[in-house]
Specification:
By secondary structure, this protein is an alpha/beta fold. The protein has a single domain, classed as 3-Layer(aba) Sandwich (Rossmann fold). The protein has ten helices and ten strands. Strands 1, 2, 3, 4, 5, 6, 7, 8, 9 and 10 form a ten-stranded mixed β-sheet that branches. Strand 7, helix 6 and strand 8 form a beta-alpha-beta unit. Helix 5 crosses helix 6. The chain is globular. It binds beta-D-galactopyranuronic acid. The site of beta-D-galactopyranuronic acid has 6 residues, from loops.
């Protein structure tokens, strides 16, 4: 008997070592790395135990999931203030070798219009309106030439005007949290609320197609884009890039060396991005009633594409594939199997021209019926 147990233990050590070699990891694998997609919580099971079978039941389940992820992970956001106005607008300038008209708009919003937020708008010259529009978390001129060149309008907004992003381990009560003191929202929720306020303004512009808004962002901006798109159904397409922990990465299924729930919620790092008690699930991910595929599922049946890099282990590519697989049944059940997509490129932590090309190809496919060069069905890891 004792011999048998010894043999079993030896076998397990050998098996773990083999898995570690296959995964290319030198450290002892952590428990979470071995969770299987089939063991993740079921987004299609209502709190009362019944399984979702109709679109109506999904609506109810969607409400349950929203409350679950906001109360536990991100914190609650105030409703739309419905008062976004333009404070000032700079005269458009022509950039990108004459191909783009750029203008900066300063918005006022919130209680007594006390909040201000800048939005940069880049419109392609000579493109047929109304245009599909990419909305990015964070001001960045770089992608404008590529996006405008493909006939997409591009807008980006200054999320830090609502809540600044000081160096890790420091928290400040930002202007939006000060304006709405009774809400428990962390920075990601504030920034995501900002995406919706930028959209409130963009929807007033007749040159933009109101049914073809895409929200994207990178890294902490990717987490923000996923949450914004998950909650705000006016976004037709949602593209988190390199978003990892708190974004498209699964907390229970991880590459070795990926950022864990415990690490990201450490008070020395990014506790302030989340609802203040979220960190208690560090090393207890299995007790979470959801995982990040629930957040992805909130996008269904709209379009969702996560773009990631295979060399960006910190952002957990394996776990991003896991959430893609685990969210798929929700898209299937709503009759939109092709609306859930994933794309991996070689390289590291960035949102590159290749990532934007994948976004544009996915949008062209669904908005214009025009297939591009990017494949969305390639899975780098075994299922
Ligand atoms: C890292 C953080 C990641 C990611 C990244 C970024 O330090 O651990 O979750 O958000 O910052 O936003 O660049």
């Amino acid at each position: 008997m004792a011999m048998n147990l010894k043999l079993r233990a030896l076998q397990s050590v050998f098996l773990i070592a083999c898995i570690a070699i296959v995964c290319g990891c030198s450290t002892t694998p952590k428990r979470a790395q071995f969770a299987s997609v089939s063991k993740l919580p079921d987004p299609l099971r209502l709190d009362n135990g019944k399984r979702v079978k109709t679109a109506e039941a999904w609506k109810a389940r969607r409400g349950e999931i929203i409350e679950m992820v906001l109360s536990i992970e991100y914190g609650h956001m105030p409703p739309s203030p419905e008062n976004v106005v333009v404070k000032s607008e700079l005269v458009p300038e022509i950039v990108n070798d004459g191909k783009t008209a750029h203008r900066r708009v300063l918005l006022r919003l919130g209680p007594e219009h006390s909040l201000e937020m800048a939005v940069d708008l880049y419109l392609p010259n000579n493109a047929a309106a109304p245009l599909p529009t990419v909305v990015r978390v964070g001001l960045d001129e770089k992608p404008s030439a590529q996006l405008n060149g493909r006939g997409y309008a591009y807008a980006c907004y200054d999320q830090h005007a609502l809540d600044p992003d000081p160096k890790e381990g420091t928290d400040v009560v930002g202007p939006a949290q000060a304006a709405y003191p009774t809400y428990d929202w962390g920075s990601i929720a504030v920034w995501a609320w900002g995406a919706s306020r930028a959209l409130d303004y963009l929807l007033t512009l007749p040159e933009l197609n109101r049914d073809q808004f895409i929200v994207t962002g990178h890294s902490r901006g990717g987490k923000t884009a996923l949450l914004a798109g998950a909650l705000d159904e006016r976004f037709a397409m949602v593209v988190p890039n390199g978003s990892g922990a708190g974004g498209a990465g699964c907390f229970r299924v991880m590459n070795p060396n990926s950022e864990t729930l415990e690490l990201i919620t450490s008070p020395k790092r990014f506790k302030s991005w989340f609802q203040k008690d979220f960190g208690k699930f560090g090393k207890r991910e299995n007790e979470l009633p959801f995982d990040q595929h629930f957040v992805k599922a909130l996008v269904a049946p709209r379009l969702l594409l996560s773009t990631d890099a295979l060399g960006d282990l910190w952002a957990n590519p394996l776990g991003t594939q896991a959430t893609y697989l685990a969210a798929q049944p929700v898209f299937d059940s709503l009759g939109a199997p092709g609306s859930n997509a994933i794309h991996f490129r070689e390289g590291g932590h960035d949102q590159t021209a290749e990532d934007y090309a994948a976004l544009l190809d996915f949008a062209d496919l669904h908005f214009r019926g025009k297939p591009g060069a990017t494949r969305f069905d390639l899975l780098p890891f075994p299922k």
